[in-house]
Amino acid sequence: MAQTDFSRLCIHTMTTKPLDICQAADLYAKEGVPAITVWRQALEGKSIPAVKQHLAKAGLRVVSLCRGGFFPAQDGAKRQAAIDDNKKAVDEAAALGAPIIVLVCGAVPGMPLVEARKQIADGIRAVLPYAKSAGVKLSIEPLHPMYAGDRSAVNTMKQANDLCQEIGGPDIGVAVDVYHLWWDPELQGEIARCGKNGWLHAFHICDWRSPTIDLLNDRGLMGEGCIDIPRIRGWVEAAGFHGFNEVEIFSDRLWALDQKDYVKMIKDAYLKHG
Amino acid sequence: MAQTDFSRLCIHTMTTKPLDICQAADLYAKEGVPAITVWRQALEGKSIPAVKQHLAKAGLRVVSLCRGGFFPAQDGAKRQAAIDDNKKAVDEAAALGAPIIVLVCGAVPGMPLVEARKQIADGIRAVLPYAKSAGVKLSIEPLHPMYAGDRSAVNTMKQANDLCQEIGGPDIGVAVDVYHLWWDPELQGEIARCGKNGWLHAFHICDWRSPTIDLLNDRGLMGEGCIDIPRIRGWVEAAGFHGFNEVEIFSDRLWALDQKDYVKMIKDAYLKHG
Question: What is the C-alpha to C-alpha distance for residues A208 and B148, in angstroms, rounded to an integer?
Fold first, then answer.
């Protein structure tokens, strides 16, 4: 079913990367977008309490902090550094009032995927109690298999669900992103499983362009590609999720536009195809 | 276990795309490569009996013909045209003495994947009796999920196996390509299932580069990327496959090399990482 209003629309700061976080917040607020997901890059060199105050003044709800993760590494010192950095992300999320941290779990070229997956589970286990005591949840974002070599060895909803089951939710859960998962024939069933167990933390939208000319920064605005977003959103809602629909788009093409025009395009696409 | 000789090495004509098929055949033969997989593009404008004779004189075994498939389409006339073209491919394979045709099953941007998958099954069913009577097998090649939008709606080994089970092997089977499937946590089990049922028709190798800079033509030579080829080959062999290891690489970078040097590099990489 199509969207009829913007009450559940959230935009990621990375979607409007050219804007400073305060500019972005003011623009979203002016356009009637009620929520924001904050990327850690957008906080660099900023006072988090000041940003928090700015977002609150703009009336924006903070949906999540992106991103933690990147747990696997070839040596123990680097794995510990990743754990420390994830704890730092927990501190940032707590300071900002973000209820969840999205995890891009990590992968190392040449490391067997089975080993990377073990190190991911170990890393999450090492951070989870700290996150829990800070009141912050961790959300595994399964990434498209084209990122299995260097960004995430967790590439399907089933794997993310299995991790939640193994580690024990709901403080660990899943961020469902249509870009990464739309192709999976088992998606509907695994989304249902995720929701039934209380692990369904977040829902990200954008589109898959044909052809896609860059593996990282050629995502499409909703409607520009081949993903049936309302159908997948229907599965997510049927699984009990009624949080925000987060627009997360990395696109050299769209970053080159006037970002004020672009946010209007996002709103239009959200109503028609979101 | 590492390869110790070239007795099971096969090269796809597309791997050395700059070469005419007869040049390629002479080069492979000179280098002691015993087998070739022929792409239909390489046959354009050629007499197939003459090519067959050339390959036989060079002492090359023909492993397969690439490629049939591309079944889904928005209207019935186009679907029938695809079926007709696949029957033409069967004629070509029979004329060339290729025992199998590799199928890239097809997808249409905007068509629901469930519908595309149904049309793929229907298309295969429409061609299979014709192929069978010509003594040619059809081999589904599951393609990486990054091709789900426009090249193949069959993206995992499990889906390919399920199709074989539904349609009824072994005249329909599977071509396993490490590039498409290496990331899948269920790969080992599904390869075993495939072999046990007699559906395991072919095995293709190359490597996944990190970063990959082009979705189509940036494959790596074995050893240039993050795929543990000997491990996957071990699974394939444990499943009863003892056919050729087919080197199928699309790479603008490698096509730009002197192809004589490149075939020597392929042989070297095959022994070290194949």
Answer: 10
